[in-house]
Amino acid sequence: MTHHTWYFDLVNHRLSEHHVAGFLPFPVLDGIVTTAESALRWAVDDFGRGTDHPRPLGVARPHSVRDVAAVLRFAHEHGILVVPRAEGHSTGGQAQAPGGLVLDMRGLTTVHHVTRHEIIVDAGARWSDVLEATLPAGAAPPVLTDYLDLSVGGTLSVGGISGATHHHGLQTDNITELDVVTPDGTHVTCSPTHQPELFDALRAGRGRRGVIVRAALRLVAAYTHARLHRLRYDDIGTFLTDHRALMTEGRFHHLEGQIKAIDGTWVPLIDGVSYFTPPTAPSEERLLGGLSDRRDALEITDFTYHGFQNRLAEDVSRLRAAGPWQQPHPWINLFLPDHAAEHIVSETLTELTAQDIGDTGHVLLYPILRARITTPQFRLPDTSTAFLFALLKTAPSGDTNALARMLAHNLRLKQRVVAVGGTVYVDDIAD
Ligand SMILES: Cc1cc2nc3c(=O)[nH]c(=O)nc-3n(C[C@H](O)[C@H](O)[C@H](O)COP(=O)(O)OP(=O)(O)OC[C@H]3O[C@@H](n4cnc5c(N)ncnc54)[C@H](O)[C@@H]3O)c2cc1C
Q1: Do 306 and 351 form a contact (C-beta atoms < 8 A)?
Q2: Which of 31, 236, 249, 357 is least surrounded by Cβ atoms within 10 Å, i.e. has the fewest?
């Protein structure tokens, strides 16, 4: 690790390890500053993988809040762009700092405090670290992303949705306090009662109003087991009708939909998950009564609670080893106002084949109850219920035409959805 002094060449806007007259000393950090090729390559890559992003000047790896403040203060004084980044699972360049500095938050991962009701954790920690720290206390975050190896700061800066959102809102609706370094390098603590404007600007604030360094997060009681009920439907209309009933009645702890290509046909499926701790077990009659799924196709699978929350880990390891994880991911996540959901989903599926999503792609549909979402910056359709419609596409490696086709389709779909009052989540794509 090199703690030596770096210098900033204001004329040519670059970092230097050598002092020349006129160069300014860059703050010495507890962590490091680097311009190494491997660090710059890490910084320009993201999960989208379809675009060659312009390079940053360098990467700063803070090891303390003091480091974050020092970098931001220096950058503020000298007009240098600084963008925080952690796990790099953005798909549209959101964590890029072209010509500026990338702040690698992965060195700030300490869990400071855990009780049954709250965890205080550094923003560079992943949700898998959070869960590992809370489960021994019999507690868990009420909303966990499907994939746990995303950072706390990364998802709090966009919102954070899961199948529990119809009960508990977003991850950003479950924060009790944030420690942040504002763009001028000031360390501030804010909460719903202390500096509430800053608190609201940071939640789903895309890192623009400051770098989140630490978060106090609300916890709920954890169970030991989870039972997944996979309900199958023959048509989108019935699938959405049951989805609405399940979202408003809140029968399942976790509720999500997906539409899978099975033998060349799009098949809507609802995954309803009920948590339990034996000897108590979920009542099938209460959970499934009155639904119109194809009961002959019902699948029930039991998991441990942790196994369910971490359910994507095995698939991800496989995808990493086999290659698709490294392929381009032209993803699009849209919120559909409920009144337009059936039409948009049906029309979209009519024009798409499984190939248009890619071999390892997914189509997801999550129910959203607007009343549960209190994060002011989070943009939703102006309707009491909505659906997150996610087309998680994977393009073949090296096939620029296929990637361009997928991106062009995303843009057309976005325009169609926005025209009926829908909004875009995470992947802001330009018209
Ligand atoms: C496989 C996969 C699964 C996903 N599953 C879900 C899901 O279930 N639910 C969901 O809601 N989303 C999901 N997402 C989207 C994901 O939540 C966002 O892309 C998130 O921003 C990624 O977090 P990250 O740590 O990779 O952040 P990065 O890509 O490193 O950064 C993302 C954004 O956050 C900002 N940022 C990072 N750290 C900080 C910080 N400390 N302070 C302020 N700003 C910061 C960055 O500047 C950037 O704008 C998924 C994405 C992938 C690739």
Answers
A1: no
A2: 249
The domain spans of the chain are 7-107, 111-221, 226-425
CA–CA distance, 326 with 320 (Å, rounded to integer)? 7
Q: Which residues line ligand 1 (CB under 6 A)?
A: 47, 83-90, 94-95, 105, 123, 145-147, 150-151, 153-155, 157-162, 206-207, 211-212, 426
Residue 210 Cα to chain centre, angstroms: 18
| Among 102, 103, 150, 217, residue to substitute to test ligand 1 (most atoms within 8 Å of Cβ) | 150
DSSP code of residue 128: H
Q: Is this prediction's pTM over 0.70?
A: yes
Beta bridge partners of 220: 140
CB of 295 closer than 8 Å to CB of 306 = no
- Listing DSSP states for 147-209 in one string gives SS-SBHHHHHTT----TTHHHH--GGGGEEEEEEE-TTS-EEEE-SSSSHHHHHHHTT-TTSS
Assign domain 7-107 to a CATH class. Answer: alpha beta
Q: What CATH number does the domain located at 111-221 have?
A: 3.30.465.10
Answer whether 7-107 and 226-425 agree in fold.
no
Distance 254 CA to ligand 1 centre (A): 21
**Which residue's CA is the nearest one to ligand 1's atom 53?**
89
- Residue-by-residue pLDDT tens, the chain, 431 positions: 556 799 999 999 999 999 999 999 999 999 999 999 999 999 999 998 877 789 999 999 999 999 999 999 999 999 999 999 999 999 888 899 999 999 999 999 999 999 999 999 999 999 999 999 999 999 999 999 999 999 999 999 999 999 999 999 999 999 999 999 999 999 999 999 999 999 999 999 998 899 999 999 999 999 999 999 999 999 999 999 999 999 999 999 999 999 999 998 999 999 999 999 999 999 999 999 999 999 999 999 999 999 999 999 999 999 999 989 999 999 999 999 999 999 999 999 999 999 999 988 999 999 999 999 999 999 999 999 999 999 999 999 989 999 999 999 999 999 999 999 999 998 665 54
